[in-house]
Design a protein that fits this description.
four-stranded mixed beta sheet, mainly alpha
Length: 411
């Protein structure tokens, strides 16, 4: 049995045509997805708005404006003491200039770079004077940044004007701590909504393509099972004929073949998972153990699928490979792998006929990874794993009759 396992393993590894679909295909597709989606994700992220500030003077208005800027920014080049978390939450990245001419020069020199300055601000008579660049950016990001800068400075003018009017009416207002707290609450932004976390991790639309790809890659591992079991049959393979007259029992040979096929399929799928995890940067929420479980069960399902297709009578091996490819591509279609229109169609079918997802192995594998990423409870994951194991058992049961030892008049 050990020799059967060893040589089946070696023969599968030496099949370049089979490994192209089981190993190379998911790596190539992951690379394509990475090249497609990373620029879109970078554009979707809103970095702090880069602005130049003419250094305020030491007057009360200047100090107030300085404190306002420090509260909203990481202070650009002077942010060495700022923490990384503060920088992530900063609205502005500020660079200070000695005068307006220097600030304008800083802004002009940055034009044409990957991260230009949006404009510069100078405090004049207690009010910020905003100067923004006329950007030709076609994505609208620079216009959005200019709007943010103008809106924030307008808010500062309105709040400072309100405080000055209140202080003019009651000069002792600042000495009353309770009333000062009321003023601070009055000028603070209105929190009309509360941000909550519905899922364990932040949802990302692009990960659906990777999860669907894992489902497709897992099912393509069925080509390994198909090739291995075709060579197990005495009437389709010279190797199978030699094994039929050998000393090893037929049951041990079948078990060793299943084990070797599962190991190679699992290894190929695990490599694809590692590539997505560490190279493509797909976030699996750090649940590597659960991901290994889904990967192992998916590889076993692929082995059972290849075994079942190899048992189809009166069909040559090339025809069986075509059947496997058709099944995998059809299942992946309803998992949403082929783009946004297919995702919308798959979602509509899922809502109208939920049972369609239960019999689609590609969808079950994809949703198993979804449940790992977005659910804190193991219940959804265990449900998908149970369905995959039931599919595996049914496929092996369908193959059992064909895998039994048979007698042949001539080999």
């Amino acid at each position: 049995m050990g020799n059967t396992f060893k040589y089946t393993l070696l023969s599968l590894i030496r099949m370049p045509g089979v490994l192209v679909w089981a190993l190379a295909f998911p790596l190539i597709m992951s690379t394509i997805f990475m090249m497609m989606f990373q620029p879109l994700e970078e554009e979707a992220e809103m970095d702090p708005v880069r602005i130049a500030i003419v250094q305020p003077d030491e007057s009360a208005e200047g100090q107030a404006f300085q404190a306002f800027l420090e509260a909203l920014s990481d202070e650009g080049e002077d942010s060495a003491e700022s923490s990384e978390d503060d920088a992530d939450e900063a609205l502005f990245t500020v660079t200070y200039a000695a005068d307006a001419a220097e600030a304008e020069r800083i802004v002009q020199d940055s034009l044409g770079s990957d991260d230009p300055y949006t404009g510069y601000v100078q405090l004049e008579e207690g009010e910020p004077d905003v100067h923004v660049t006329g950007s030709s950016d076609t994505t609208g990001i620079e216009k959005l940044r200019s709007s943010i800068l103008a809106a924030v400075m307008d808010s500062y003018v309105a709040n400072s004007s309100l405080i000055r009017d209140l202080m003019a009416q009651d000069p002792l207002l600042a000495s009353d701590s309770s009333r000062s707290a009321q003023i601070a609450e009055l000028v603070s932004p209105l929190q009309a909504t509360e941000q909550i976390t519905v899922t364990e991790n932040q949802p990302q639309e692009t990960v659906r393509f990777y999860f669907a790809l894992l489902g497709m890659a897992a099912l393509f591992g069925g080509s390994l099972g198909l090739a291995a079991f075709q060579r197990l049959k005495p009437n389709t393979s010279a190797l199978g004929a030699r094994r039929a007259v050998g000393a090893t029992s037929h049951g041990r040979t079948v078990a060793a073949t299943v084990a070797a096929t599962w190991v190679v399929s699992f290894a190929c799928l695990f490599v694809a998972y590692l590539y997505m995890r560490f190279v493509a940067g797909v976030d699996f929420a750090g649940h590597d153990g659960e991901c290994l479980l889904v990967t192992a069960v998916s590889a076993l399902l692929a082995t059972a699928l290849g075994c079942a297709i190899s048992c189809i009578p009166h069909v040559p091996e090339d025809g069986k490979n075509g059947i496997l490819t058709g099944i995998v591509c059809f299942a992946s279609f309803f998992a949403g792998l082929y783009g946004q229109p297919t995702m919308e169609l798959a979602d509509e079918i899922s809502r109208a006929f939920p049972a369609a997802d239960w019999v689609n192995p590609a969808t079950q594998i994809s949703q198993a990874f979804y449940s790992i990423m977005y659910y804190s409870s193991p219940g959804p994951l265990m449900g998908h794993v149970a369905i995959l194991l039931i599919m595996t058992a049914l496929l092996f049961i369908l193959s059992a009759r064909s895998l039994r030892r048979r007698r042949y008049a001539s080999l």
